[in-house]
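Continuing the series of single-chain predictions for the mutant panel. This is the parent chain; the variants come on the following pages.
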Amino acid sequence: MAALDWERIALDLDRIGHARIPALLRAAECRELSRLYTRPERFRKVVSMERHRFGEGEYKYFGYPLPPLVAALRRAFHPPLARIANAWQQRLGAPERFASSHRDFLARCRAAGQERPTPLLLRYQAGGYNRLHQDLYGEVAFPLQLACLLSRPGEDFEGGEFLLTEQRPRMQSRGEAIDLRRGEGIVFPTRERPVEGTRGHHRAVMRHGVSRVRSGERTALGIIFHDAR
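Parent structure:
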């Protein structure tokens, strides 16, 4: 965390709507997290994407206590991301501000009845994909989230690019497909981000997903900072 260039991360989020973080996790850490997928006692809920028409694949929400590495990432990323989020709020003229401590932010979630953890593992087999969506679970939502690829593209799977779309007022949607490497993280907006126009900043609506996996198996970690009802 100390080595991350937060000025560059904030600039990328402002300029292109996402920020890549190479080598966020080591290969051994990716394997360790992937192996948790077969341990049902670590999860509070399993979701079949086909059943809910979210796509094709499966994801599992961790239960509390979170795995130490997941808890550490959530705790460490929150303060610098909160600074970026608060700068965005100021540009948009929105009064809401986010606590610099993730513990304090979770207390706000609990006060709104959001007490269930949202970090998750997502797994896709050949043919799997995730439709474009937003991860909103209640009244309180943190504006940024983090994902990290745990599998090896080109070896464990083919396809499965990370997808982002941006919808600006009175414009057609802009889409982007991002090839992540194993252990690479990506920070992106949960719901919207400020973009500068001729009359100041306005809101661009963001959605994310995963393109079809052509072969193999793809596993990823998602870290959402707000909890769910």
